[in-house]
Design goal:
Structural class: mainly alpha
Distance between the termini: 114 Å
Largest sheet: 5 strands, mixed
Radius of gyration: 44 Å
Shape: elongated
Strand content: under 5%
Helix content: 55-70%
Strand order of the largest sheet: 2-1-3-5-4
């Protein structure tokens, strides 16, 4: 589609929807009362930001993309606290969709060339705005200027934001024939007032009053009657009217007035059909229309009757009605188009049922009504393509191309069919076949951006499927094709980086993530991925004992993320591996200074003390080893460390500190075997010493040994050890001896009486 044709359609679309309802009584500060005239009397605005906007690929490639984005930026600047747009590549997620397309089977009414429609939804947002560009006409209107297109886009986005009406002031962007390049103060004031008004604020009656005033001034104002009908219709359905039946009756009256003013005015007919359906009067309407035709046949009434039949899914009667309209007026545009579309629908249905005779007959009739430049093969190709028989359709298109190789319309249809075939194959997850189909489409029409987009998507899908299946190499090959087609696609490079990481090719991962980082250095996720690549690469180098290279990569990563503590902890490992304990200590100090309670740093520091302590113990440098273990905070020590510290006190002859340490171990694990053996060693060393200054310590040790033996169920041995403790008794130790004996007596039933006698002897 050329930009010239697109411009003409877009201009017609935006002008065809609107009507001006001026009023002299409204103040100049805003035109708030006018903003629901085109939205059925209901306040219709977005409640969540950002507003997601989808711009079709055709428009993205057109010269008018800057003007569309200019309009969004202008409205954001006008109301920065309220309005925010965000473009999306997914139409289903869009709130505003700007797109184009051919007229289809559903819209068979004689209607305008295009529409920009407000669609109510059963969603939390409530509505969508969709600009639909119908491909009719031959593009005789010239290309719009940049200023004209900016005004058009600003005006339409004003409607989309909720200004579903027109300002009576010519300077405003929402004036019917505006020329402004920026929203005025009135536009902004109206928008701000709108977004500060609750959605359920009653507005139907205000709209009705304004429309009635307009009708009083211009009784034959067709659009005003129609809009008044839509407000009454919505009020009866969604408003808080006390008498909804009367409002529906008023709506019907308005739509009937529209038909009296213009029998061909399709919007009123569509709403009238809905109103009749809501009130159960459809058959009465058909009966009345048939009666009028019997009195005075007219092509317009036959065409309208055909529409009613179509709404009731009586397609054969609808076709007869359209044929009668053409008998009266052979060139009646709407009837010819409607009959042509119904014949095509009949042919398509026959194709779906594999009734090719009926399909061919219907196609022949359609060709007689609306001859095409392309031959029957082309049309049959269209039919098969419509029912999804793409391989057969391609065969017919190829035959048509053989007969007329310069038919550009057929070339476009063939390319589109290849593209759609690719979509079908893609949906069946036949990625390679889909890729071939898209490439065929591009071979036929190299400028077919949709096929190129789909080709990229197929490689994306193929890569994603292989990635989910764990087939890393195949996924990498697919994503490499993506970045060939889109060298600046940061997501493709990012996924390649992730796959290279999974594969263990850290150098390639780092290179991929570096490309993404160079393009978008301020994105947090990009920075995170690059750091992860550095980190993985460095840790693999540490495992290979390539400590200098690991230090180099970790240092580079820290230049990007100096506060990333995990990098510094890995750098500690690298320095330790390289034997540079001084720098390892310095890095740990930096981590703990930044985050004193960092568990990894604390664990690493503890491991560092343990490693050094063990090395010093092997060198029999017990005092320095004790300092290393004692430097570990008490809250971080486990039983083994406590036992080691007590042992180091033991080997240095600090028996009381050793005993205290072993007792602390037993408090946490009363059956701890290393502590038990160390306690026995302590007892042995004390026994060998003749120095009586250790007598008290020996008594305490034997009491501790007795309690430990008791916990091990070695009761006789515990009794014997207790008896030895009693021999060295001192009066100031009686409390300890009584406590120990009491515990033994409580557990040793067989020796209880004897132990109790010993305890009694200790008492004053």
């Amino acid at each position: 589609m050329s930009p010239k044709t697109l411009t003409r359609i877009l201009t017609i679309t935006l002008i065809a929807m609107v009507a001006s309802i001026p009023t002299a009584a409204e103040p100049d500060t805003d035109y708030f009362n006018h903003i629901t005239l085109f939205s059925e009397g209901r306040i219709t605005r977005f409640t969540e930001m950002p507003i997601h906007v989808y711009i079709s690929p055709i428009l993205v490639e057109s010269p008018y993309l800057p003007e569309l984005r200019y309009a969004m930026n202008e409205w954001e600047t006008a109301a920065p606290e309220i309005i925010r747009f965000e473009e999306t590549d997914t139409p289903e997620q869009a709130d505003i969709r700007v797109s184009w397309g051919h007229s289809g089977l559903i819209d068979i009414q004689d209607t305008r060339l295009g529409s920009a429609e407000l669609t109510r939804l059963n969603t939390e947002q409530g509505f969508q705005v969709e600009v639909i560009l119908m491909l009719e006409g031959d593009g005789t209107i010239g290309k719009l200027t940049q200023e004209e297109m900016r005004t058009v886009c600003l005006h339409e986005f004003g409607h989309a934001l909720g200004l579903w009406g027109h300002s009576p002031h010519p300077a405003d962007i929402n004036y019917p024939t505006a020329t402004a390049q920026h929203p005025t103060e009135r536009d902004i004031a109206t928008l701000l007032r709108l977004y500060n008004t609750p959605l359920d604020t009653p507005q139907h009656d205000i709209a009705i009053k304004l429309l009635k005033e307009e009708i009083a001034r211009k009784p034959r104002a067709l659009r005003a009657h129609y809009l008044l009908g839509t407000v009454y219709f919505d009020k009866s359905e969604n408003g808080k009217a006390r008498l909804p039946e009367e409002d529906m009756a008023a709506a019907i009256d308005c739509f009937q007035t529209c038909r009296r003013l213009n029998p061909h005015f399709q919007p009123a007919i569509e709403k009238l059909v809905q109103a009749y359906q809501k009130t159960g009067q459809v058959f009465e309407a058909i009966e009345l229309l048939e009666k009028r035709i019997s009195q005075k046949p007219s092509s317009a009434d036959y065409n309208t009757l055909g529409i009613f039949y179509y709404e009731q899914k009586e397609n054969e009667r609808a076709m007869r009605a359209f044929e009668n309209a053409l008998d009266i007026e052979p060139h009646h545009k709407a009837a010819r188009r409607n009959l042509h579309q119904l014949l095509r629908e009949k042919a398509f249905k026959a194709l779906a049922d594999r009734d090719f005779a009926t399909a061919t007959a219907a196609f022949e009739k359609a060709l007689r009504i609306k001859p095409l430049d392309a031959p029957t093969y082309h049309l049959m190709g269209n039919g098969y393509a419509q029912v999804g028989e793409f391989e057969k359709a391609i065969g017919y298109y190829l035959k048509a191309r053989e007969m007329n190789p310069v038919d550009t319309l057929m070339q476009r249809a063939l390319a589109q069919c290849y593209n759609n075939y690719g979509v079908a194959l893609r949906n069946r997850k036949q990625w390679d076949a889909a890729i071939d189909a898209y490439r065929n489409a591009l071979e036929v029409m190299p400028t077919f951006d949709m096929a190129r987009t789909n080709l990229i998507d197929a490689f994306w899908q193929k890569g994603s499927a292989y990635r989910e299946a764990g087939e890393v190499e195949a996924a990498i090959e697919a994503y490499q094709e993506v970045v060939k087609l889109q060298p600046n696609d940061t997501q493709g490079h990012s996924l390649l980086g992730e796959l290279y990481l999974k594969k263990g090719d850290y150098a390639a991962a780092l290179a991929a993530f570096q490309k993404v980082y160079d393009a978008t250095p301020n994105a947090e996720w990009v920075r995170h991925n690059l750091i992860a690549a550095y980190h993985h690469y460095a840790r693999s180098l540490i495992q290979q004992e390539r400590y200098d290279a690991a230090i180099q990569h970790l240092t580079a990563a820290l230049r990007i993320a100096p506060k990333e503590l995990n990098l510094r902890i890995s750098l500690v490992h690298a320095y330790q591996g390289a034997g540079d304990d001084k720098r390892a200590d310095a890095e740990l100090s930096r981590v703990l200074a930044q985050e004193p309670h960092n568990p990894q740093a604390k664990a690493e520091l503890m491991n560092l003390h343990i490693r050094r302590g063990n090395e010093l113990m092997q060198q029999r440098n017990y005092a320095t080893a004790l300092a290393e273990f004692a430097a570990i905070p008490k809250g971080d020590r486990d039983i083994h460390i406590d036992n080691t510290i007590a042992y180091l006190y033991l080997v240095q002859g600090e028996f009381i500190k050793a005993l205290t340490g072993f007792e602390q171990v037993f408090q946490r694990d009363r059956l701890n075997m290393p502590a038990f053996w160390n306690l026995l060693s302590l007892e042995s060393q004390l026994v060998r010493r003749s120095d009586k200054s250790h007598t008290d310590t020996l008594v305490r040790v034997r009491c501790a040994v007795a309690i430990s033996l008791m916990h091990r169920k070695q009761l006789d041995a515990a009794k014997e050890k207790y008896a030895l403790a009693l021999k060295g008794k001192q009066e100031h130790l009686h409390a300890l001896l009584i406590e120990t004996g009491t515990a033994l007596a409580r557990n040793d039933v067989r020796n209880r009486e004897e132990i109790l006698r010993w305890i009694e002897a200790l008492k004053p």
